[in-house]
Amino acid sequence: MKKRRKWILLGSALMLLLLFGLSQFYVSIMKDEWNEKRAAEDIAGTRAGLTQVKKAQKSIWDENSIYWVLTGKNEAGIEMMVWVQFTKDGKIAEGDNAVYGVELSRGTSEQKIRSLIEAQLPDITIKRLMPGVYNGEYAWQLFYEQGDRYYYKFFRFADGTPIGEGYSLPNR
Length: 172
Prior knowledge:
Number of strands: 8
Structural class: alpha+beta
Number of helices: 2
Helix content: 25-40%
Shape: extended
Strand content: 35-45%
Strand order of the largest sheet: 1-2-3-4
Distance between the termini: 56 Å
Largest sheet: 4 strands, antiparallel
Order of helices and strands: HEEEEHEEEE
């Protein structure tokens, strides 16, 4: 009986040690991502007046289009969207265009762009819709499935119009 109890305690201790190690591994992997998000929230508050963040999404299209896009409210309670550009090294980009904030009413909301997409592309399955930047324009990035293929398509944030023809990905 004592041997069995000893093995149960030893097994439990090893399990706890394994769980602790896995949690520390996860924290070490995610630390840079969390620091970027926190930096984006701080600068969005300072330079764009964002006081409450409801949603934060990281958008990467190429090495010059790495953005954290924050949705929330300013001090007056007005819904805003703020794009914060980062370098490939995880630092906030420098320059006047590194942070861009706009009231959501002056652009296309997620609900409105979903309605526009549904009207223009009725037979698709949306896999992901997120704000980002494409060819220097603030945009909505749509990743969708149509038939047995996947596509990317971009829509201007300002008015919801499509940007270019989009991209077709190879078959599975």
